[in-house]
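HUMAN: Forgive my ignorance: could you write out one protein's sequence and backbone structure tokens?

ASSISTANT:
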Amino acid sequence: MDLRGRKLKFAAVTTMVVLALSGFSSGRGTGGSGGDGDSGGGCSSSGQDHDSSSSRQDDDYDGSGSGGSGSGSAELAQDSTVELVSCATEADPYAVVEVTNPNGVSDRVTVVVHFLDDRSAVVDLRTVEQVVPANETVSVQVDLPDAAVAARVDHCEADLMPGTSG
């Protein structure tokens, strides 16, 4: 009987070690919410994330994620892009850009247009927020205050503000 007791003790200790190493906890509750955010035991723990989305969160943390930041409702696989269609003239004191969203979810972006003179000095800089529906391209008009400012513009450069695609 002494040998049998030792075997049972060994089995119990081995089981506890395996459970401890696999993330199970013996005395921390069963899924309730604790004050330190680390509650529950085993797989019911709210402090553990077994969802595949955790790898995307890790990508965002180290800056290597492919999407941008934003509302947080869904992560974008690719950043939206912007293309200058036309620059401002005295007759038409605005630039037109096209923003393309290649993703399956809508994207809120901030379009930035630099209105430049013939020496590439900034005459004016304007931003416009735009929601681009999933898998679509939208035209965005970026206005200057008046024709006098537009008369000084030689060319334009368009971009999306970093960190707004998302």
Notes: The two ends are 67 Å apart (CA to CA). The helical segments are 2-21, 54-61, 147-151.
